[in-house]
Structures are given as structure tokens and as C-alpha cells.
Amino acid sequence: xxxxxxxxxEVRREAARNLASGTSRALLLAMLLATASGTLAALxxxxxxxxxxxAAEFRERGGSITILQLAGSIDGxxxxxxxxxxxxxxxxxxxxxxxxxxxxxxxxxxxxxxxxSAGFATMLPESTGQQHAGLILxxxxxxxxxxxxxxxxxxxxxxTVLGGTYAYPDDxxxxxxxxxxIAPGPAETLFDQCWVDAFPVTQATLDMLYTAVxxxxxxxxxxxxxxxxxxxxxxxxxxxxxxxxxxxxMFPVAAFVVSLLVGVTAVWMRRIEIASAxxxxxxxxxxxxxxxxxxxxxxxxxxxxxxxxxxILTQSLAANDHLPVVLAAALTPALSVSGAILGTLxxxxxxxEQRLFVYFKGRS
Length: 364
What we know:
This protein is α+β, with helices and mostly antiparallel strands. It folds into 2 domains: 8-57 and 242-361, no CATH class; 64-232, no CATH class. Helices cover 47% and strands 16% of the residues. It has 12 helices and 9 strands. The strands form 2 sheets. The protein has a 6-stranded mixed beta sheet with strand order 7-3-2-8-1-9. Strands 4-6-5 form a 3-stranded mixed beta sheet. α10 runs antiparallel to α11 (319-350). The longest helix is centred in the first third of the chain and has 35 residues, at 26-60. It is elongated, with a radius of gyration of 33 Å.
């Protein structure tokens, strides 16, 4: 019998009938793909959000702050200028004073005294910055004293004002600045330390830190020393490398392979039906179009159930992280659909009208 060309409208109707009648097993196939795609996408999304959360915690707890120390040798202006480098959040110089500072409100409990360059005012967490020319105190200490930013402060060294506040949580940081006062130092001061908050911590940033050592500093037998402000979380890792090396990075490919096998199996189980249609005069191209429309329908139905899962798992991400993670996670359902369609196409092309009797004999 000479094959008769079907109009595309008829192809669509045939695919719709197969889907509605259950001939294509669309519901079962959609559920299989939804389970595979949803599980793999969820695991990959959780892995990505976990990496981002770990990186955020690392920065929030001061693990990204590197300190160059060389007593009386740090040029504060050069150190502050490092804050303009790409990837550097803040940079500033600091020195601890020998004598503690006595505050009028708590004369019996002197606080550790520091002087800093202008850039240091935003280094510590929840810092208000240097809003007034005066002392910067830990937020808890200012609350104890009943002070707001701008209020006058009386010290044994003379009157001043509360220029700003900062937080200093007990999260593994050295304890010295949790009960301290930081005063702005003169521009020409040579400091003991240069702090730089940069993430990721690159070798180029570390090399630039050494430029803060002043050429006018007195000769010293000591060498500049680099330390990590909060080392309890370990050494900083390059986020791009940890992202690429995550254990779930190949899950989208796994979803493609699983859906490919589902597509091949779904069509191969209908090989007698398909070969019979070809034998009765249905064109190969029309049968193939029908199968592909069916595969697109059930694979899209299964893949779309993954989208709400991704949305829920990424809803708490920061705005600049949200879109990249969503796009990476959406690769899993996208490849699932691609795999299902390719599997359907592959199996359909392998089915031959001439092998109808062989298929019939080999049916289970």
C-alpha cells in the first residue's frame, strides 16, 4: 500500500487521542520523568545553595579578612587605597595603643584603645561607618552606655562623640575588639596592621597588601606577617572552583541519560503498534511526528513539576545569586525534555515495518 501523507492537523489529533486514551502511557512517563528530574534538580540546587551559604558565612564571620602586620610600618593611605581594587569590600589600617581608654560611664573598666585609618571604619560587621569625628564603639558597649551615634562621650583623655558603632560577634574572631574603642588616626600615621576584606582571596590581592609597607618605615628585623582574621572556618576556597567541583555538577547530564532511556523504552514497548501503522500505510515521517508530539507533551508535563521545587529552594538567595542558580538548576529539567525527545526519535528510527513479524514473535 502506498503511504498517504497526513496533514499536520491530523497528526496533532492522533497524538492527542493517544495521550487521552492512555496509548502513549503519558501519565506514567510524566511521573517517571518528574521524579527523576525533580530529585536530581533538587539535589543539585541544594548543593549550589549550600556552597553559597558557606561562602556567605565565611565572609560574614571575617574569614575573608587578611591582615598584614609589621609594627610601625604600615602606610594608612596606601592601605585605604587597596579598598578600590576589584573584589575588595573594605581596607584599612589599625594599631593598638599601649594605654587603655577610660570612659566616664565605666571608669572601673577601661577599654582597649585602637587608632585606625579612615578606611577601617567599614571593615567590621554591621558597621555604621565613621558618621562623626569621634570614637567607634562596639554596638553592645554603646547600648550599655546608653549612647546613640553623635552623642557626646567623656573620657580621661578629653571629650569626644560617638562617631559610629560596629558589631563584633563571638564567632571565632580574636576577642580584642569586642570591648574596645577605635579612634581615627592622623593621615601621616604609620600603623601596625593593614586589613583587607576580599573574597575570593587571590594571590594578586595578597601581593598588593605588601605595598602598604611604607618605604619611610624604620628598619626592622621582623618580616611582614600575613594572618587570617578568623581562621576557624579554614582557608578560603575559590568559589568558582568549589562550584565546578561540587558532587552534583553532573546531575543534569544524569537527568538527560535517564530521560533518554525512558524515551527509548516508551517507544520500543510500542514497536508492534508502530510497525503495524507503517504496514497499514502511515508514512514514517507522520508516525515520527506523532510520537515526537506525544513525547514533548509528557516530558514537558514532567519537567514543569521541577520548576516549583527550584523556586522554593532558591527563594532565600540574594538577588545577585538568584538568577545564576535558577538557570543552572533549570538545566536539569531542560535536559530531561531533550533526552526524552532524543530517546523517542532514536527508538522510532530503529523500528522497521519489515520487522513486524519479528516484533510480533518476540512480544512478551
